[in-house]
Write a structure and sequence with these properties.
4 copies of one chain form a homotetramer.
Chain A: E1 7-9, E2 16-17, E3 20-21, H1 23-34, E4 40-43, H2 55-68, E5 72-76, H3 82-94, E6 99-103, H4 114-127, E7 132-136, H5 138-141, H6 147-153, E8 159-164, H7 169-176, E9 184-187, H8 193-198, E10 203-205, H9 213-224, H10 228-248, H11 250-260, H12 277-289
Parallel strand pairs in A: 1-10, 4-5, 5-6, 6-7, 7-8, 8-9, 9-10
Antiparallel strand pairs in A: 2-3
Chain lengths: 294, 294, 294, 294
């Protein structure tokens, strides 16, 4: 197992059969990903439908995946409740998780600012057995954690990184220029992988990597080899696909695209709806245009 | 115990000592409320800091309060996960809860619309042992459930009401005019108690009732007695206080006001911060101006 | 001419032929409205497509309408530029306008707060020849003017009222309880006409009054006669229609509904699009359900 | 005069004395800028307080500046009214403007989408004498024009570029990869100058260039010379300054920073307020930390 928090990590989707966890499908996907140079996996991130999973289901997923891979496992264990976050994180660590991806608390939106974020992350970080990665995703939380707050939190020995799911690389370069080298910034969406890497990020946790892991790895590798023009070209080709499996069609779109690409996607969990026929046709056209299906 | 879902319900705050549940303080408050003509209580609603409580703490609260009162207990048991919502609701029911107040799911904001809400509430309602009250509170969830969706859900025999925490009474009158009499609409903030009642609501779940239960009851009673001008006057007097303990100073302000009014407020739980000295002084002036303290 | 700023005012739509001002159509509509007990008219308000009209066109409209009616004319003369607002207001006054409806400035959204609003409205009010009505419409401006700011501005002798186009009557009752009787609050949308009047408003400037003036007048009159239940019932019947001609289908929907009701609506001006066939069918169904067409 | 729309353009602020246009101050600033390798100037852009200027004042500014420089002049002539936009643009062209920077119309926010934008920009572009640059600035307009709409509009022979003031470079790379080489994308804020250039932009219209033109030029030149690390380092140093003169302190902050840097800033126009003493001290510290003042 490498300890290097860089490169490409797919945030694994969670497959269901009849609305119940389908771990066999998850493992089928995992075996395909294991053949690639992926750096590890995120379990029950946003696109893993974490919001719809019980604590027991989450721990089952860590256990199952841990048995099948030696790669890094990052688990989405953040909840508004500090107590719940700590206990879930420690339970996940016992089952083999390497890092905790901790989403910003967000219920009391107008109260979520510098001091409350310091309170929250300091308390969590000092109480858990594995290192904490801050997770900023305003499109789901409607709160935003400012660079200056991240820079302050980066001083904590057990807070070792940030997944930033805005599309704003100015945040990345500002943060990177103020934190120690050991603090890693990872972009949270493939649309800004290239400018994110240009601005100091060291990797990506990318929904797109569930359906196009090779292309995501290639953008990353081209960047590392200073082949900037090729990196940008490939990223641009992927932008419409990335939009389709995130903003446009959401988790249902991501899972449908997995099915089309030979992975086990299946339906999202209730209350989400699968794609309509019309949406599925549009999705196929987008994948086709990007040469991801024939 | 009355079964009538009308009148005034305080959503009880949850007191903490050293950041741990302080049930003795909760009971001290409860004894004071029990002397009033309140219709019941909401346990772990938004202002009960539900977001920061573990499942075990929530169930402890129901058990403790149920032992001390025969009034209606409405419990905030809604979570994004349908499974968790069902099991928490049924556990709360076993401990004596009468109704489940189920907040709209909200994580995947852009997916939360007519059909997904129907999926969610139908599944929950058919799987729980107590009646469901839909809870719409866009200021915390950033999603809004439309009148037409509520009207459709009101057909379900186990969905019996709505707590609406917008300040828009047009929603209330539109809903009330399209649902059976047995479906009850309750306003979620004291600033619109009077226009809400005028528009067809039958009661209020009001943070303000934690600190000014008599005034809330009086507005309600004046309205019932057709003393509209007096009702409106008293409500107007309370609007600045209500703003102070909700939008302006949040839960910290509500708890500080409880302390000032002789209840056991205490600090909010981490990561929230208590009021600053300057905020406390402003709060005192607001309460004084409304004759709630001397 | 009455000077009493109360009752129902339609904000007249502006008809176009081949995208040019069609004053003959405007007068045709006006003649129909003149037979009703409307209190006056708003010229080039939001729904009058003020944003798309040149200064010359606006002044033409005042001149033309003034010649045909003795009723109150309220003109939408607010712009971000104080200089332009003053000169347009004074020009409109010379052509016969009685009041200036001055929308909150909004370009620098984050700067629009208490002090800047005081600067703006004080400067305008002291420089124009007719009284100023503040116009708050966050759905178009994305800024909101707080009750405390309005209460302060109400002290100015030439600021005599507020059109509030939020749907929140708590704002109305709070304002009304703190300003002199001579300061009038008028609701800006029919969905809250009844609770607005209940909360202290004295009238409505209502897009709906362009297509259903009699129903708007009836709600108002029922309220004045203390026939609250009937007032509420009629308002509820109108809510879906009001939504159709405002939030749902916008100006294009309002104009299409005018055509269906025998007024001269026509197309909105470029860049707006007229309704599609499907939208038109839906609109017809909504009007039919409310018995506004057969 | 060069025709090349690339490099750095300051959007000139508009100085006032006693709230009236102070063209002498403007020329004093211009003389200093003229000594730099700036590509041209934007007149009455957002930070030029275009919203507060009359048409006559705008035309005075073009005339005055045109007499003093041979560089490119880009003028902010977009208004919601198509008629006004066309006539102001043509008047500005007669006075010597080279390009029209046309902000997205925004009053009817919910109607501003693909088709309405096509209507608006096509009509404007075919009716004006100088080429049109689309201006997307959601923080002021609360509307966003999508890449697919821009790509479509780029087919029009008289629409030759985009100023994009989001901080999202994924938009830039997607657009650039779908439009002809002759269509230029320019970033609208210095925080993303480097990632913007990396993603295919060819220049910047930067408020920061009013106070730090040399630093902005240096970032641009370093990028052009493939000195990416140095470019990024300098940009990161400027990010706090850029935030201070845009999001944090607005136009008042930008003008105060100009005064501190030896330019003629002065106060913003009414209704805006100048900085408070406390804000001024904070601004000084930020400029000092970036070595822009001693």
């Amino acid at each position: 197992m490498t300890d290097n928090l860089s490169g490409i990590f797919p945030p694994l989707t969670t497959p269901f059969t009849d609305d119940e966890l389908a771990l066999d499908m998850l493992l089928r996907n995992l075996r395909k990903y294991e053949r690639r140079e992926l750096s590890g996996y995120v379990l029950f991130g946003s696109n893993g439908e974490s919001a719809f999973l019980t604590r027991e289901e989450k721990l089952q997923i860590v256990t199952t995946v841990r048995e099948q891979t030696k790669k890094l496992l990052i688990t989405g264990t953040g909840l508004d409740s500090i107590k719940d976050t700590i206990s879930l994180t420690n339970n996940a660590a016992e089952k083999g998780a390497n890092y905790a991806l901790v989403i910003t608390p967000s219920f009391f939106k107008s109260e979520m600012k510098h001091l409350t974020f310091l309170n929250y992350y300091s308390k969590v970080a000092e109480s858990v057995m594995i290192p904490v990665i801050i997770y900023n995703v305003p499109k789901f939380t409607n709160v935003n954690i400012e660079p200056e707050t991240i820079i302050k939190l980066a001083e904590h020995p057990n807070i070792i990184g940030l997944k930033d799911s805005t599309e704003n690389p100015a945040r990345i370069s500002e943060i990177v220029s103020h934190v120690p080298k050991s603090f890693k910034v990872i972009v949270g969406t493939a649309s800004v992988l290239y400018p994110g890497l240009s601005s100091g990020a060291v990797g990506g946790i990318l929904a797109l990597a569930n359906i196009a892991p090779d292309e995501c790895l290639q953008i990353y590798n081209l960047f590392v080899e200073n082949k900037f023009t090729e990196a940008l070209e490939l990223q641009n080709k992927m932008i419409p696909v990335n939009r389709a499996v995130t903003a446009k069609f959401g988790v249902a779109g991501l899972k449908a695209a997995m099915d089309l690409r030979g992975y086990s996607g299946g339906n999202p969990r209730l209350p989400l709806e699968p794609l309509s026929e019309a949406q599925l046709i549009e999705l196929k056209m987008i994948l086709k245009k990007a040469s991801l299906i024939e």
